[in-house]
Amino acid sequence: MFARTVLASVAIFMVLAIAAVGIVIGSGAYDFAADSPHTVMVAKLIALARERSIEVRAAGIKPPPLDDPRMVAEGAEHYALMCTGCHLAPGMRENEMRPGLNPKPPVLVTIPPGDSREQFWIIKHGIKMTAMPAWGATHTDEEIWNMVAFLQKLPGMTVSRYRALTAGAGNHNEHDRMEMPH
Questions:
Q1: Domain for residue 29, yes or no?
Q2: Mean pLDDT of 165-182
Q3: Considering its fold, how many domains does the chain have in total?
Q4: Looking at the predicted structure, is the pLDDT value of residue 180 above 50?
Q5: Is residue 160 part of a domain?
Q6: Which residues, 6 or more positions from 172, have their beta carbon under 8 angstroms from its beta carbon?
Q7: 151, 62 contact by CB (below 8 A)
Q8: CATH code for the domain of 162
Q9: What is the arithmetic mean of pLDDT over 40-44?
Q10: Is residue 181 over pLDDT 80?
C-alpha cells in the first residue's frame, strides 16, 4: 500500500511539473532576452548540465604534449584572430560586444588553466546558447590542439609576451580564404 501511495504521489508530481513547464513555455512567461539574466535556479541548473555534459564528452579525449612553442605560437595567432572579441587578451579592456552576451564569456587570462581535454571539446564543438561557436567545423584537430596549447599558457600572461606571440597574427590569412562547398 505504501509503495502505491509513493508511486501515485510521484506520478502526480510529474504530471503537475510537466503541466507547469507547459504553462510557462506556452504563455511565453520566461524571458529569453540576452539582457535579462536567468533566475538563480535556472542559471545553476544550466551550469550544472553544461559542466557535466562537457566532462562526460571530454573524458575519453587523449591530449597530445602541449609544451611545443610552435603549437603555442600557432594557437596564439588563432586566438588573436578568433577569440579576443569575446574572451579578451592580456591588456585588452572590456569591449562593446561582451556586455550584451548572456552568459558573459570568461576572460581567460584571469582564470587558471582548464582541463585541456575539456578545452579541446569546447573549442571543437562549441556550446549551445552561449555564442561559443563550434570551431571544429572550420579547423582541424591539430589547429584546435594548438589553441589549447596556447590556452594552457594564457592565464597570467603579460601583455608583452602576448604581443610577441601574436605579432604575425595579421598575416595569418587562412581565416579569410575559406572555400565554400559547391
A1: no
A2: 59
A3: 1
A4: no
A5: yes
A6: 77, 78, 81
A7: no
A8: 1.10.760.10
A9: 92
A10: no
